[in-house]
Design a protein that fits this description.
Oligomer: single chain
Number of helices: 5
Order of helices and strands: EEEHHEEEEHHEEHEE
Radius of gyration: 24 Å
Strand order of the largest sheet: 4-5-6-7
Amino acid sequence: MILVGAFLSVAPVHGSTTPAQSTQTIIKLSQAERALVAGSRDAIVRSGMSSAYFDRHFTLVQVVNRSGDRRVVWSFSVNEYATTVTDVLGYYTANGKRSDTHSVTATLGVTSEIKRTISRKTADRLIQKCIGSFANPSVEYRASANGPARLLLTAEAIPKLSPPQNEEPPKNSPKAQVQTDMDVIRDKRRNPPPIIVASIDLESGKCTKGELLAGPKVPASPF
């Protein structure tokens, strides 16, 4: 990151952009915006990485400085992976002095300098081995319960369809009516199946699998 007067090198927001494809533009920042950027950078560096590592792997994406909405959005890229890190700023007052707080201290926790990662091809293979066919893959950089923040590839398992029944009774038969009534009762009581998710640690290749419980569908309001 290079500061020249009130100008800053900024990466555009592209969800599918890889580090090798990213380009930079130059935008002008106000003094207040530059202060937010400097404070956010300092908060991330103090989490455990060097200034040199930060400047090599983080690029400013956006600065918002509005009443009730102050945030700095960074692009974090390592090798062939890129994701965003959003730092939402609050503040507290002590002894008449106002100090900023940074959400990255919680979302990242302690950090380290990630350098080596497995390839995306290997990560896709490992996640498929872990949960089968998957959808909605995304790269995340977040705090870990054990150790420094991890760079992860997360995805959802594609649910397997129930096999069709071989025979169905005629629709007007008593048996079909009983089955239909029971199905309605079951549908009202049954919660949607959990969504199986997996995260691949992009340094070690370790897979962590879990469930997201989906709530029952709520009918749309007629109003």
